[in-house]
Amino acid sequence: METFDILNSPLTGTNLIEASAGTGKTYTIEGLFIRLILEKRLLVDQILVVTFTNAAAEELKDRIRSKLLETKNAFIEGISADQFLNALIDNHNDTKTAIQMIHDALINFDTAAIYTIHGFCQRLLTENAFETGGLFDTELVTDQTDIQQ
User: Fold this and answer.
1) Distance CA 13, CA 102 (A)
2) Please, are residues 25 and 12 in contact by the beta-carbon 8 Å criterion?
3) Distance CA 35, CA 89 (A)
């Protein structure tokens, strides 16, 4: 098994990252999110982040937003305590554009697609109700106890 290189990992294709608790999965997702904005020039609503629990989704939202702010400040100051951010600064020649892209991501962060698996499925069913022949007010039920009774 090889170590995942957050700075040089390709942003195309498929990568499987297997990691146990406390190994930096959230930090890696934050870094990949930042790289997608800076290197692929994606907008926050063009990046999908899916996790298992509501608590994990909320933590991801908080952490990614904080990392965006930290990244913006690092580009403004030209240095950071975070080695990953310092490497990003070194890799980007156009600091002004990088700051603007991160600023735009912060402004539009409420459109970020950060969901639980159920939340993402609910969004797809709602947004594509006509195409799928489903109801426009479809509701995913995770606890079926009341229905069964």
Assistant:
1) 24
2) no
3) 11
CA–CA separation, 68 and 78 (whole Å): 15
* 48 contacts: CB under 8 Å, gap ≥ 6: 113, 115, 120
- Residue carrying the six token digits 């007010």: 137
Q: Are strands 113-116 and 48-51 parallel, antiparallel or unpaired?
A: parallel
- With beta carbons less than 8 A apart as the criterion, state whether 30 and 63 touch: yes
pLDDT of residue 128: 80
Query: Mind listing the domains of the chain with CATH numbers?
Result: 25-148 (3.40.50.300)
Residue 117, pLDDT score = 87
pLDDT tens profile 97-118: 999 999 999 999 999 999 998 8
For tokens 């930096």, the residue is 24
The fraction of the chain above a pLDDT of 90, given in percent, is: 58
